[in-house]
Each structure stands twice: as structure tokens, then as C-alpha cells.
Write a structure and sequence with these properties.
Layout: H1 2-105, E1 124-126, H2 133-140, H3 144-150, E2 164-166
């Protein structure tokens, strides 16, 4: 039994050394693997940071797009309101033009006693029933010759009621 004990005693230290060497190899492999894993983790963290930054930018862009969409919708409403106002104004103007055109198509209305409803402007006279060049000149303090001179287009023998005559300046 002594021999077996001795053999066991000499095997144990060798087994311990072998086990220690295996543990050192496994530990070394674990350190190398942990180092590789740490490097991979650092690389992945950079990528994660980039993704988080992109996510933040996407959120900001989405908020800006929502604001732009609201602004475009408001601008569309304002533009439509402006076109409606312009359309209404054009309609009013067209109605006024139509009334003016209609009034130009109608013959001049005569008031009581055959008097014309035409209105004389500054330096004008509106012919009334029974007027002649001489009567008009006398009533306005000018000569017949001056009256004829400023109205070469008028046929003085055939004056019409409502016709406008230019008056010369008084001397």
C-alpha cells in the first residue's frame, strides 16, 4: 500500500500542474475573447450612437414636415379666400360695366317740356329747344363768330336738343 500511496502522491502534483496549465490556457483564451468582445462592443456603440442621432434627426424632420404641411394648408385657404374676394370684386365690376353699357344703348331721356337730361361740363352748353347760335352766344356773353370758331364740327342750322356746345373764353 505504500507503493500506491507514493504513486498517488507523485501523480497529484503533476495533475495539479496540468490542471493549472489548462486553467492558464483557458484564462488566456477568455482574456483574448473578452478583449475582442470589448472591441466589438465599442464599435457597436459608435453605430448605436449614429442610429440614435439619425433617430433624433428623423424626429426633427417629421416635426418640420408637419409644420410645413399645416403652413401649406393655411396658405391654400388664404389663397382661396383671396381668389373668392377677387372674384366677387370682378363680378361687381362686371355688373357695373353692364349697367353702363345698357345706359349707353338707351336714347337720351327728355324731361318735362322736351328739355334734355344731358349735363354741361365746365366750358360747355347743352342745347335746349328753340336755341340758336345767336341765342347761345348772347346768353353766355360771347360772340357768334367765337362760338362757331371753337365748334367747327357743329351744323348751326340744325342744332339738336341735348347736343353739347363748347363755349369760348370770354374776352
Amino acid at each position: 500500500m505504500d507503493t500506491i500511496s507514493r504513486e498517488n502522491n507523485s501523480v497529484l502534483p503533476i495533475a495539479g500542474v496540468i490542471l493549472g496549465a489548462v486553467a492558464i490556457i483557458i484564462g488566456g483564451y477568455a482574456v483574448v475573447s473578452a478583449s475582442k468582445l470589448r472591441t466589438k462592443l465599442d464599435t457597436d456603440q459608435v453605430e448605436i450612437d449614429k442610429i440614435e442621432d439619425l433617430s433624433s434627426q428623423v424626429s426633427s424632420a417629421a416635426a418640420a414636415a408637419d409644420k410645413a404641411d399645416k403652413d401649406v394648408a393655411a396658405f391654400g385657404r388664404q389663397t382661396q379666400d383671396a381668389f373668392t374676394a377677387v372674384g366677387n370684386t370682378i363680378g361687381t365690376i362686371q355688373a357695373s360695366i353692364s349697367k353702363l353699357e345698357e345706359s349707353q344703348k338707351r336714347p337720351a331721356a327728355h324731361g318735362a317740356h322736351g328739355a334734355s337730361t344731358a349735363v354741361a361740363g365746365p366750358g360747355e352748353y347743352v342745347v335746349k329747344s328753340g336755341d340758336t347760335g345767336r341765342k347761345i352766344a348772347h346768353a353766355n356773353g360771347v360772340t357768334v363768330a367765337d362760338l362757331i370758331a371753337v365748334n367747327p364740327e357743329i351744323d348751326w342750322k340744325h342744332l339738336k336738343v341735348g347736343q353739347k356746345v363748347k363755349l369760348p373764353e370770354k374776352k
